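Pasting as-is:
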Amino acid sequence: MACNCGGGAAQWPPQPVVVYELALPDGTVRRYVTHQEADAANKRAGSTGVITAVTQ
């Protein structure tokens, strides 16, 4: 018999995942899990990028 080791029912539909995209002026786009990571990367790049929240 199969084991339902998770103990709970699967959520449906799946919950959306929010990531933060950093778009730099040179056309580079990078994705980060937290806003703090995106902000730190933006500062390292000279604070010239734009950070947007994206739902996947």
